[in-house]
Amino acid sequence: MNIDKWTNRTYPVFEENRSLEEILAETKKIGLTTIISVDKEGRLSGVARLDEILESDASGLLSGVVGEPVFYCRDSDFIEDAALMLIESHDYVLPVVNDDFFVVGAIGVFEILEGLMEFTAMDKPGTRISIVLDDKPGALRDVVDFLAEREVNILSIITSASESEDSRRVVIRTDESDISMIAEILQEQGISFESISEEEGFSV
Fold first, then answer.
1. Which domains are delineated in the chain?
2. pLDDT per residue over 149-175, tens digit each?
């Protein structure tokens, strides 16, 4: 999914010609730890951490502290790309720019978690099914077909590595809250499962 949906467009940015004293006063009020710097036209010029600013002469300018923006996202990137960059950079927030390098906002850990919540449908009520399947073409399709035949609506499917190299762990979330019905469908088809649990869902 494109990160444009998850971009925080109200994240404060600071012109590089601002004094560090002014920036410190403002960041303390709103609790920022990552400072995004832009030039006078609004293009990304750098990023600095609050501790770097605290260690600098407060009479100096932001331009003297910010480093070249190595890690940033474009608004056309995918949310998975943003997650990988956050991991690589060890930052909590990354600037988001458009094709002309103008800063359009920021994306951070909280926005990534919101995206993950939507991907996995963990906020929706229903049933969570955990199955280990052979890692071969068609294995997952059979399970999906069996559920579809019984008119069970699938909300999300996630796969991950299992203990065996020849299999994958699959977590399927459906909007069906009847656990016994889901178990019956799988058992009828000879599909063993690790667990089936009812999900109440939640809202943010």
1. 13-116 (3.10.580.10), 124-199 (3.30.70.260)
2. 999 999 999 998 888 888 899 999 999
Structure-token pair, residue 34:
């990552």
Q: Are 95 and 77 in contact (CB under 8 A)?
A: no
Among candidate residues 171, 5, 160, the one with its CA nearest the CA of residue 82: 5
* CB hemisphere CA count around 14 (13 angstroms): 27
Question: Is residue 148 classed as helix, strand or coil in its secondary structure?
Answer: helix
- Give the pLDDT band of residue 204 (cuts 50, 70, 90): low
161 DSSP assignment: E
Measuring CA to CA, how many Å separate 66 from each of 39, 62, 141? Answer: 12, 6, 50
Beta-strand relationship, 44-49 and 34-38: antiparallel
C-alpha closest to that of 152 among 186, 120, 122: 186
Query: Considering the entire predicted model, what is its pTM?
Result: 0.78
Bridging pattern class, strands 73-74 and 93-97: parallel
Q: Which two tokens stand for residue 80?
A: 């998975």
Counting every residue written for the chain, the total comes to 204
Q: What angle do CA 135, 113, 48 make, to 5 degrees?
A: 120
What's the gap between Cα 33 and its chain centre? Answer: 19
Rounded Cα distance between 159 and 152, Å, is 19
